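User: Structure please.
Assistant: Input sequence and predicted structure:
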Amino acid sequence: MSGHSKWATIKHKKGAADAARGKLFAKLIRQVEVAARTGGGDMDMNPTLRTMYQKARSASVPLDTIEKAIKRGTGDLEGVVYEPITYEGYAPHGVAILIDVLTDNRNRASSDIRTALKKNGGSIAEPGAVSWQFERKGIVTVPRSVDEDDIMMAALDAGVEDIADEGDTWRVTCAPTDVHAVEAALVDAGITVESADSTMLPTSTVLLDSPEAAKSVLRVIDALEEDDDVQDVYANFDIPDAVMEAVAG
């Protein structure tokens, strides 16, 4: 499991659940709206919208809220126009960061991202300086109680590339275009799917082997994720379990 994934799990368990839930809802609703605006409101014809719809439903966003977001995206309801932007940057210790933003004010978003990085020991990077260190992959999460061989048998023909043990879950990796096929194959086989999405995975990682180093990087990640315009933050750090426990404690 990547350090970023472990930290996100810990924050979810320890953080203020209601506040985190409200912020997550806002981000997911914005993603649904942009997906509908970009590719139309028909989920059968718009796989990105289907993915965002499923993410929102999995997070218990009310159905009527999702439907209104889709209508705003298609223009059936009035709404704000959000622009997708990806920023690249560095945290301390040379950790590479990709920051996906949806914003209605490019100047504000740029200023906020630069400030969050600078105040916490990070820096902005030129376009292309960081993105080459990541690749987009489909990730399907399955409970660890499921047998690994059963997962492979069920979804191999759908495009599974790798299955990794992440403690409480299996991380099933595939091409981003295959994520829905893999999910469907697993569900058809009676296997529970906890989540299915496409994400950016680092091609190599920076080991943070002390609590001080870990805290300096996590401070940057947390500051970025607090920004309402920021949808996703991807980073290429890895923190050993013992160090992560010390940080979380």
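Residues 17-39 form the longest helix (23 residues).
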